[in-house]
Every structure is written in C-alpha cells, then in structure tokens.
Amino acid sequence: MVFRAANRFACVFVATILAAACDAPKPALSVDDYRCDSVPRPGNASLPLSTASDDWYQVYESANSVYSIVEPYQIQETISHLIVGDDRALLFDTGVGLLPLKPVVERITNLPITVLNSHTHYDHVGGNWEFSSVLTIDSDYTRANMAGFDTQRIGDDFIPEAFCKGVPEGSDISSFYTKPWKAERFVKDGEIIDLGGRRLKILHVPGHTPDAVALLDSDNRLLFTGDSWYDASLWLFVRETNLDDYETSISRLADLEGDVDFIFGAHNEARLDAGKLGALQGALLKLRSGDYTGETDAYGRLAFEIDDIRILTSQPALDGKQGDISLGGSGLDRWPY
C-alpha cells in the first residue's frame, strides 16, 4: 500500500505521481495546501512555544532544558534540538541554513555551544559554518559533505512552491547553497558528551547514511534519533543508504526503547512518545521479504506502507546496493534510474 499524503513530503509524492500520470517532465519538489495547512503539526502545537521563536524558526520547549528548533515553512520541516546542561549546550543539527541559526540559539542560552550532526545531509548541516565547535563521525562520506552542497544538488528544495509562507525576505533561493564547514574533532560510538549535570551517549547508527548518529540521554529518558526515525515517511532511497545497516541500527535503537519516554526525530513532529521502533523493526523485515509491492513514483522511488510505517526506498537499496560513499550525498541525490 502507498503511504498516505498526510506526512513528511506527502506533497512531493502527490506531485510526482500526478506528473507520471500525465507523462509530464519530472517536477521540482512542491508543497500543496494540505501540507501547509497542517503547520504547526498538532504535536508541536501542544508544546510550549519559546520566546526565542521568530518568523522562520519556531522554538518549542519539548523537554527539560531541551529546545526543538523547527523550520516549519520550508518543505523539509527540519528540526534541530538544543540540549542544555549546566556548563555548555549541545546543538543536534543546524537546519537547512537559509537564515542564520546562531542568533536563535543565543536567545535561548549564553552557554558555549557544541554542534553534533545526526548525519550530514544538506538539511542538517546548513548552519554548521556559524559555529566553531562541530563534532561528527569520521568517514569518507562525511569529509566529502564538509565541502557543502551547491545549487544544482539542492535547488529542487529551494523554489517558491517549497515555502508555505513565501520565500523569506532578502533570501536569494535561485542561487542558494550550503557553506563549507570544518569539524573540531571526530567522535566515536559510545562516546559520552558531558554538558555539566547532563551526559549524552553517542550511538553510531549507520543506514540512512554512513555517518548517522543518535543521542541517548539516559537520566532524562530521552532518545534523539535524527532521520533514523521520525513519525512520517522514512527516506531510504538515496545512494548512500544501506538497508542492512539500517535494520541493524533500528534493532539497536528498539532495544533501548523501554528505557526512554520520548523520542526526538529531525522532521515534522519535535517530540514523539516512545513505542514505535519495534513496529519499524517488523516492517523492515516484511519490506525485505519481497512479499510486498511498492508503488513507483515519477522519480523511480518505491513507496510502501507496512503496519502503518511509511517507507520511501529504491530498488537498488532493496537489492542491497550502496553507491560510492566517498562522493558524499546531499539527501536529494538519487540513483540514476
């Protein structure tokens, strides 16, 4: 069954299916009225809205000293999470980078900021260049992505139709690109980041990308999953995705689910109740069994809905293939269908 048009990038799927039906050229990514009307997402609207918010960034107080910084008016609906300790704060992702993020963070806290990326797709590293302390996994894939992404690779996400409230004043989306950035140092699986009164454990969870990480805040029973899990259609179709690794990583995260109350993904809803990672485990097994048939969109991607889990993947990924990770990946780079 195809996923329903009520979640992340549903508008993209609808647009591409309609284009295929009309034998039209593949369209740029677009946003329909339904999706824009769904902003703010119900789960976000139920959270306290911080005074650090502005016309572009909506900041929600999503847990004890956790601030979820949502970019709700652009097609990705990216979420960066600021986790504040006694001595310093950790910023988990930096968004698409269209407007400066650092001033928003400075309205929340005056503590030193360390950035850690959940992975290095364009919509999670856009503001990295604004910060001097950036941590990341060391991989050829990550190093390639540090160069930034030019307009040609990400331009489909920066057309007028990709914005719910219009293009922000003063933004030139026709030539938008993400800026290069550097890592202060590289981190490893199991490493602890001590913020002072708050300790975060880094979990390397490759699959969505080779450099994907999650964060476990055991004392506060919180799990930050990036793009490995969010409650919408899961993007598992790009060349750098490895479904074998993804299954292993989801199994690891599912084993932790009984020890957490809330999960924080990187798109749409800032905070989710724990309890669906086990269902995702089962859906992945069924997906890989070959017993389910996906619906092909105009980009050659395969859309599945299995046990209320929506997955957007590709035949090469299902066949166990992975592209050359040394080339990096913007998150929009697809297999050459």
Give a nutshell description of this structure:
The chain has 337 residues and is α/β, with parallel strands linked by helices. The chain is built from ten helices and 17 strands.
Explain what this protein looks like in three dimensions.
The protein has 337 residues and is of the alpha/beta class. It has a single domain (12-235, 244-278), classed as Metallo-beta-lactamase domain (Metallo-beta-lactamase, Chain A), CATH 3.60.15. Helix content is 22%, strand content 21%. The chain is built from 10 helices and 17 strands. It has helices spanning 10-21, 33-37, 42-45, 102-108, 122-125, 140-145, 151-154, 243-256, 277-289, 315-318; strands at 58-63, 66-70, 79-84, 89-92, 113-116, 134-137, 185-187, 192-194, 199-204, 213-217, 222-226, 234-236, 262-265, 272-273, 295-296, 302-306, 309-313. Strands 1-2-3-4-5-6-7 form a 7-stranded mixed β-sheet, with no helix packed on it. A hairpin with a 2-residue loop joins strand 1 (58-63) and strand 2. Helix 8 runs antiparallel to helix 9 (277-289). The protein starts with 9 loop residues before the first helix and ends in a 19-residue tail after the last helix. Residues 1-34 have low confidence and may be disordered.
